[in-house]
Amino acid sequence: MLYPKLGRTRRVLFLDELRGVCLILMILYHAAYDLNFLFGVDLPFYSAPFAAVQLFICCNFIFISGISSRFSRNNLKRGLVVFAIAMAMTAVTYFFMPQQTVRFGVLHLLGVCMILHGVIYSPKGVTKRSPLLGLLVCLLVFAFTWGVSRHYVGFLGLYQIPLPSVLYTQYFLFPLGFPTPDFASSDYFPLLPWMFLFFAGSFLGVAFREGNAPGFFYRSRSRTLQWMGRRTLPIYVLHQPVLYGILYLFFLGLEKAGLR
Questions:
Q1: Which of 12, 34, 35, 254 has the fewest beta carbons under 10 Å from its own?
Q2: Is the entire prediction scored with pTM above 0.85?
Q3: Hey, is 210 helix, strand or coil?
Q4: Does the pLDDT value for residue 254 go beyond 70?
């Protein structure tokens, strides 16, 4: 469905707002991460609530990014830009925070998925197929490959098929989801299974692009969340250095005051 006068696809404001909520949760999550691992504050970081928040944030970011790929005029270019930023983050963390090096994080994943989307799909070609079928197949494969980095495939651990151990002996396979025993990355989102969540979002994005989603998704509720959601990439890139700087100055002040 198009605006009758503007002649452009309607913006799905709910997705901007949901991205804004996820950004707020992500900032709080990473603040807790920094407090725990960088500033020595004892927090139950590996408890179920923290894990649930992380999973909620990541799944929404990746799924929404897949939906948004239907609105991009050039996914290939967008993917190359995102992947370049991801590699810059890898370089910065490697040289300045080697213990926190990001070798294949969520930006690497999204960049590669956007590139693949730009190469494989055309706006006209996919809409001729069944978006619903594509959505369901991608979600099933996502569930089936959930445990690849843990050496198995199966449906969310309920039915496990062990994978050959040789797959986890070649270092260069870690982007696919086959990390070696000594592999470490402070943020790790390999193509298996996460690319299938991205492409599930892409198939759902067909309905959003054509204006076939319920009107709820197109209505405005929070301009602040929308503003944040439209600036996801710069906020994602900048929030950690800003957080670290604020916390560093805070604890430095406590130390100077003799309170720590």
A1: 254
A2: yes
A3: coil
A4: yes
- Burial of 188-207, coded b for 16+ CB within 10 Å and e otherwise, reads bbbbbbbbbbbbbbbbbbbb
Q: Please, what sign has the CA dihedral across residues 99, 105, 111, 113? A: positive
Spatial distance between the Cα atoms of 109 and 232, rounded to a whole number of angstroms: 15
Residue 163 has which token pair? 């994978």
CA–CA separation, 189 vs 103, rounded Å? 9
More confident call, 1 vs 167: 167
Helix (H) or strand (E) holding 180: none
Rounded CA separation 139/105 (Å): 21
And the tokens for 143? 């569930």
69: tokens are: 């790929």
Confidence of residue 8 (pLDDT cuts 50, 70, 90): very low
Closest by Cα among 15, 17, 22, 26 to 242: 26
Query: What's the pLDDT score for residue 120?
Result: 86
* Cα 11 to Cα 159: distance, rounded to the nearest angstrom: 40
The torsion of the CA quartet 109, 66, 118, 184, rounded to 10 degrees, works out to 0
Q: Tokens at residue 115, please?
A: 């590139």
H or E element in which residue 39 lies = none
Per the DSSP assignment, residues forming a β-bridge with 153 are 161
DSSP type of residue 162: E
The pLDDT of residue 93 is above 90: yes
